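Quick one: structure tokens for this chain, please?
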Amino acid sequence: MIKRYISFTESDDYMSRHIKSREEFIRSISSFEDAAGREEELVDWIGNEGYNDEKEAIKDLKGKTKEWLALPNPFTAYRVVALADPSDLRHEDLGEHWTQYDWMIDGDLLNSIGDDTWEEDAEPYVITAKIRKEDVDVMQTIVQNLSFPNEHEINLKKGARPEVISVTPFDDF
């Protein structure tokens, strides 16, 4: 019996099709509505690095997708930044990493963002802002949550301009 082997050309063609279909899939997810019901596909394409297994990742992603869909538009979100003075806040570039949960703002969060590497005169401040759903980088949010599920992170698109509600010293938050 003669077996047929894939040639390098056929293999390259397969990889090209695979990469193209992955890119098309990723481009097809631009809102939380697009992600709803496709959690298994998302885990299949992105992976489940932050979980014990694929089943756990799918279950958690389904729960998070449901929560993201329920967010009002705009929604309130929080971010910790290092500032020597609150007037140093750059409103045109508030950053991309946020959380919709005020209970995530704690000492563990400071450790995870590396507050020990800040400049000596910098202090932690909490930005509270309103964010429009269309400013969320949905795919990056999903990737981050599959990789680091305990961070409950929302990622913004580059250039997004959240509406600042307050800038509060971390200890007073």
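Strands lie at 75-83, 97-99, 123-131, 153-155, 163-169.
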